């Protein structure tokens, strides 16, 4: 029996809805052209491409030649997210022990307070995998949850001012917060108006509290903000924060869907922090899953597959596909897990990415992505990506993903 991942349990707890999303015709066109290749070609760099390796500083200089420009079958965004660092790593991660900081997290983020968990309004789940690993508490009315463990996971959802499911509320606007001017738009929350900039300031105060608990292991960057309509007149702000470790950001995509899992010896996924606000007095929820605090079995690199080589790799492998207009390009960490074949039944170990698998490692990748048209994204707190192409920054192997890639 396959074990549940942290994401699988999260989906059960929050009753995350899924739905069909209309994909623009041009995206379908390039998808089917690419799917006409053999299974090996779909996710491996099969064509001979001269791979050059350079320092990250040189890669940042190369980016100037592509930002806002067209090259071969690609059109690139105005900004590439490439960190200012001299070294990058592959490593085995060690999970952060949030359960060891249970009381601190409760004091910082849980409005009802620690004493309320011992009252009749909350019930403790039978276990969180093993003794002294963590705890899960849920309110009897289903409006609140506390889930904290030593596997790098915590989720705290406070009782809402009114009953609503943040995964079902209607998303009315999306603000990309990286390297953009902050809008002064204002929305009415349950207790009055709040501007976007005020919401960011409020969210950052909670991020600062978390960093103090984590001893500033990570830095956080507000990545995207969704405005959700939760009643006829009221709205909520739902944030996705990227986090960086040793100056390198993690790609904020929980997993990359594969077309046929049988073709893949490995699976990949990213991570992010989520935070929601619907009033001036406190946050609705904050959560982070499976994150790591230290490195083992690490290998450092001062030179990586150059940005130019990564672009040439995907260009040569997609030379028969329609033009691509990328929305984001970054150098990011991504989790990778092994997905071996069971010799008894011939099936892969997993159908989808499992963040808590013991084989997980972290590797740097060049990430090229196309976002779903926001008007077609039906999940209120998810910005669906239609296409993601990643190139391993160490060995140059390319992977191509199309489908419901989402940033929460």
Structure write-up:
This protein is an alpha+beta fold and 408 residues long. Helix content is 17%, strand content 35%. The chain contains 7 helices and 24 strands. Strands 5, 6, 7, 8, 9, 12, 13, 14, 16 and 17 form a 10-stranded antiparallel sheet that branches. The chain has a 5-stranded antiparallel sheet with strand order 15-21-22-23-24, with helices on one face. Strands 2-3-20 form a 3-stranded mixed sheet, with no helix packed on it. Helix 5 packs antiparallel against helix 6. The longest helix is centred in the middle third of the chain and has 18 residues. The chain is globular and about 65 Å long. It starts with 5 loop residues before the first helix and ends with a strand. The N terminus is likely disordered.
Main traits of this protein?
408 residues, 10-stranded antiparallel β-sheet, 5-stranded antiparallel β-sheet, globular
Shape: globular
- Helix percentage range: 10-25%
Biggest sheet features: 10 strands, antiparallel
Distance between the termini: 27 Å
In short:
The protein has 408 residues and is of the alpha+beta class. Helices cover 17% and strands 35% of the residues. It has helices spanning 6-14, 25-35, 39-43, 56-63, 102-109, 196-213, 307-317; strands at 53-54, 70-71, 74-75, 88-95, 122-124, 134-139, 145-149, 154-157, 170-176, 186-189, 192-195, 218-229, 235-245, 248-249, 266-269, 273-277, 283-288, 292-301, 304-305, 324-325, 328-338, 361-371, 384-392, 398-406.
């Amino acid at each position: 029996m396959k074990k549940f991942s942290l994401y699988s349990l999260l989906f059960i707890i929050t009753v995350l809805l899924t739905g069909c999303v209309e994909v623009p015709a041009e995206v379908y066109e390039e998808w089917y052209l690419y799917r006409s290749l053999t299974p090996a070609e779909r996710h491996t760099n099969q064509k001979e491409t001269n791979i050059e390796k350079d320092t990250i500083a040189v890669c940042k200089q190369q980016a100037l030649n592509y930002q806002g420009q067209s090259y071969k079958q690609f059109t690139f965004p105005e900004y590439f997210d490439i960190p200012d660092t001299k070294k990058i790593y592959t490593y085995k991660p060690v999970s952060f022990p949030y359960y060891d900081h249970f009381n601190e997290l409760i004091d910082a983020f849980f409005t009802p307070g620690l004493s309320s968990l011992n009252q009749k309004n909350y019930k403790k789940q039978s276990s969180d995998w093993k003794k002294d690993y963590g705890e899960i508490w849920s309110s009897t009315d289903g409006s609140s949850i506390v889930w904290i463990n030593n596997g790098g996971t915590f989720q705290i959802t406070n009782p809402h001012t009114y009953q609503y499911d943040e995964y079902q509320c209607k998303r009315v606007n999306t603000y990309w917060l990286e390297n953009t001017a902050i809008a002064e738009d204002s929305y009415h929350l349950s207790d009055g108006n709040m501007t976007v900039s005020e919401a960011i300031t409020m969210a950052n105060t909670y991020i600062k509290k978390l960093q103090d608990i984590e001893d500033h292991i990570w830095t956080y960057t507000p990545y995207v903000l969704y405005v959700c309509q939760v009643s006829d007149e009221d709205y909520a702000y739902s944030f996705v924060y990227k986090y960086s470790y040793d100056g390198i950001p993690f790609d904020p995509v929980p997993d990359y869907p594969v077309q046929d899992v049988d073709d893949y010896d490995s699976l990949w996924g990213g991570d992010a922090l989520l935070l929601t606000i619907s009033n001036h007095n406190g946050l609705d929820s904050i959560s982070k899953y499976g994150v790591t605090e230290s490195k083992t079995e690490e290998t450092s690199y001062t030179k990586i597959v150059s940005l130019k080589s990564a672009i040439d790799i995907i260009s040569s492998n997609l030379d028969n596909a329609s033009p691509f207009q990328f929305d984001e390009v970054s150098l990011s960490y991504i989790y990778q897990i092994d997905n071996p074949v069971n010799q008894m039944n011939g099936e892969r170990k997993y159908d989808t990415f499992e963040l808590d698998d013991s084989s997980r490692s972290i590797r740097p990748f060049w990430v090229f992505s196309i976002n779903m048209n926001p008007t077609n994204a039906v999940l209120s707190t998810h910005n669906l990506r239609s296409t993601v192409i990643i190139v391993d920054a160490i060995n140059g192997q390319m992977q191509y993903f199309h489908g419901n890639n989402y940033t929460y």
